[in-house]
Specification:
alpha/beta, TIM Barrel, 12 strands, binds orotidine-5'-monophosphate
């Protein structure tokens, strides 16, 4: 099953991290941006071409270091349909490179609309008698705070397509406590959500002990991360917030089980924008991204041994 595949890629690369692909035109090295804008003008098409070329270069540099990439849809949506085409091509290229693709869309809606989202991102769209894959990611982030009926359509698509999900449980942002830390009976809200995620996934557990229904738990709240790891033993964690948001390797070690499994740590800007700190005008963006990804891996491996 799908988290088994991710776990095996993590083991093969000896690296429990995912590189976020959240590209803004400002993050693209000047020589790549200039080439695209010379070709297409200062247009959304030009910007979309630049981020696609940038993504491909990053994936060429990172594909033997990281097991997975996580493109965040917003950065592509803001460039309109040209951006969405760049996202589709990014996903296709990632798969060609053997990378596990986690589409970060944080979707959530009533059941019938959730089904449409899951067709788009994980499943297939029916046209006449044909079932056509669309974005075809391996895994998706969703927002399940509308309730279980909005999560289940995604989970069913995952079962049919052998894919998996991450549902927001305790997010990394500064305001996450405003609602997620509210007391709800004898639990707090994020615990209620975590328990729901674990319950929805419980009948479909993979060989490493994890269900298809994972949870997003931020690196920026390490004590909550530690408590959730103990509470949700069958729930795979996506842990964002390392690097640019201040989360450290010491913080994220709590996300892993005793075999060093069950979690993947994300960093986006600290890898994508590493070239901005080397003083070489972006010509070395691939080396810089690779060095940042290797440094993150080695940093985490000081605290976590993957068996
Ligand atoms: O679902 C996510 O990936 C996510 C959840 C969360 O709680 N916090 C969070 O930062 N993210 C995403 O993780 C990435 C973090 O990016 P950096 O802060 O640049 O490493 C962004 O794509 C965020 O949208």
């Amino acid at each position: 099953m799908s988290f088994d595949k991710l776990q095996e890629l993590i083991k093969a690369k000896k690296n429990p991290t995912v590189a976020g692909l959240d590209p803004k035109p400002e993050y693209v090295p000047p020589h790549i941006l200039r080439a695209s804008l010379d070709k297409y003008g200062e247009t959304l098409e030009g910007a979309a071409d630049a981020i696609l070329q940038f993504n491909k270069g990053l994936m060429d540099a990172l594909c033997d270091v990281v097991p997975a990439v996580k493109p965040q849809s917003a950065y592509y949506e803001r460039l309109g349909w040209q951006g969405m085409r760049a996202l589709e091509e990014t996903i296709r290229y990632a798969r060609e490179k053997g990378l596990f693709v986690m589409a970060d869309v944080k979707r959530g809606d009533i059941g019938s609309t959730a089904q449409a989202y899951s067709d788009a991102w994980l499943g297939k769209t029916r046209v006449g008698s044909a079932d056509l894959p669309v974005f075809d990611a391996d895994c998706l982030t969703i927002n399940g705070y509308m309730g279980s009926d909005t999560i289940l359509p995604f989970l069913e698509t995952c079962r049919v397509e052998d894919k998996c999900l991450f549902t927001l449980v305790k997010t990394s942002n500064p305001g996450s406590g405003e609602l997620q830390d509210m007391v709800a009976g004898d639990r707090v809200v994020y615990q209620v959500m975590g328990d729901l995620v674990q319950r929805l996934g419980k009948d479909d557990i993979g060989k490493y002990g994890y269900s298809r229904c994972g949870a997003v738990v931020g690196a920026t709240y390490p004590s909550d991360l530690r408590a959730l790891r103990k509470r949700l033993e069958h729930t795979f964690f996506l842990v964002p917030g390392y690097g640019a948001q201040g989360g450290t390797a010491e913080d994220v070690r709590f996300a892993f089980d005793k075999y060093g499994r069950g979690a993947i740590i994300n960093a986006s800007r600290s890898i994508m924008c590493a070239w901005q700190k080397t003083g070489h005008d972006g010509q070395d963006y691939q080396d810089a991204a690779r060095a940042a990804a290797e440094a993150m891996r080695d940093d985490i491996k000081q605290f976590v041994t993957i068996l």
